[in-house]
């Protein structure tokens, strides 16, 4: 297995602790690898639920993409250490990212200033640039899928919707507020969806909420398709220009999709006006605007508290286990 743990593991190889997050198919727990003492995060996914909701392909794709990424690690992507499975669960062992969810930091702040938002958006640009060079689309950008490491830099996690494509794919997926119009129209979508989601993230960082909100998903979708985009008072002028160019329905005009690729974003006024240091960012030499304060490498205080659960009741007998060699 590619990653930091070469030997075949079982749950006995880890001291498993508190829950760091929950999802539709299981939860992520803090753990310590007993042999090395290394802290990690174990994503525990219920096989029966994955099969019942026909998500086998997504999970297998997530594993393969994370393995590919771990061969050439990106500074802003969570690293996969190993995978294994038992009768009830599949397990993905990932680096533990100590700074908690970006979502929590953004909600606590309400909004970010332009400098902070541009710092974090730039890291997403570099990740998407790297993924797209490998013909991988991410498709699930949102604050909940971003973590902060000890230095205050981003780590993108949860590649469940990521997919390797030749040109287009037709699967409807994503978080309602972040779904691109071409996904909703079901005419096939490609790398452009990621640049749309970047526009949504920039807007949410600066405005405190996404641009298209409603109590019901259908209401959100109608607003996305309406092509009406408004900005709150005080929204940074240079950021507004870039946001509009990312949140355009016309793929022949959307930044990131044009012949200059990410250079259009990097040269936009939002970054050019501040003479943003892209190379230094990639080398992690810039000072992060958010300070992470923890006591030690096993500190979980920056994650939300979740009620404990043994996740009983989802151990249905699986006659043909598609994860046998996971």
TrEMBL record:
<dbReference type="InterPro" id="IPR000719">
    <property type="entry name" value="Prot_kinase_dom"/>
</dbReference>
<dbReference type="GO" id="GO:0004691">
    <property type="term" value="F:cAMP-dependent protein kinase activity"/>
</dbReference>
<dbReference type="GO" id="GO:0005952">
    <property type="term" value="C:cAMP-dependent protein kinase complex"/>
</dbReference>
<dbReference type="InterPro" id="IPR000961">
    <property type="entry name" value="AGC-kinase_C"/>
</dbReference>
<keyword id="KW-0418">Kinase</keyword>
<dbReference type="Pfam" id="PF00069">
    <property type="entry name" value="Pkinase"/>
</dbReference>
<keyword id="KW-0808">Transferase</keyword>
<protein>
    <submittedName>
        <fullName>Uncharacterized protein</fullName>
    </submittedName>
</protein>
<feature type="binding site">
    <location>
        <position position="43"/>
    </location>
    <ligand>
        <name>ATP</name>
    </ligand>
</feature>
<keyword id="KW-0723">Serine/threonine-protein kinase</keyword>
<dbReference type="GO" id="GO:0009653">
    <property type="term" value="P:anatomical structure morphogenesis"/>
</dbReference>
<feature type="domain" description="AGC-kinase C-terminal">
    <location>
        <begin position="274"/>
        <end position="326"/>
    </location>
</feature>
<comment type="similarity">
    <text>Belongs to the protein kinase superfamily.</text>
</comment>
<feature type="domain" description="Protein kinase">
    <location>
        <begin position="14"/>
        <end position="271"/>
    </location>
</feature>
<dbReference type="InterPro" id="IPR017441">
    <property type="entry name" value="Protein_kinase_ATP_BS"/>
</dbReference>
<keyword id="KW-0067">ATP-binding</keyword>
<keyword id="KW-0547">Nucleotide-binding</keyword>
<dbReference type="GO" id="GO:0005524">
    <property type="term" value="F:ATP binding"/>
</dbReference>
<dbReference type="InterPro" id="IPR008271">
    <property type="entry name" value="Ser/Thr_kinase_AS"/>
</dbReference>
<dbReference type="InterPro" id="IPR011009">
    <property type="entry name" value="Kinase-like_dom_sf"/>
</dbReference>
